[in-house]
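As a warm-up, study this chain.
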Amino acid sequence: LNIYHSTHLAMRRAIARVGQYDHVLVDGLKIRGFEDDVGPYSAIVDGDALCYSIACASVVAKVVRDRLMTRLSARHPGYGWERNAGYPTAEHRAAIRELGLTVFHRRSFAPIQEALLGIEQGTLELV
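Now compare it with the structure written out below.
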């Protein structure tokens, strides 16, 4: 799955685990077919800046993500996940070249595609 579809799948799964609720708030644009799965919802662009509950959920999500990345870094040392939270820093790209990919690397992400193809990042030219 690409990031767009995997994000929406994760939201559907998380909402299904919540239990009973009246309304869902989504930070972002409307999602086609989402209401069929979750019921009434509001899509709020820039929701973390406009809605207190979305802002709080965003903080919780980032803290949980950082903790998960720290645990992942213990299982797969050398990628800097305890510092870069999965973002493609120069340190992380160098680790991919040196250590290879793990099952946690998203193959559809352009820098990973370039690593798989053996292309130095930023050297591709559009014709």
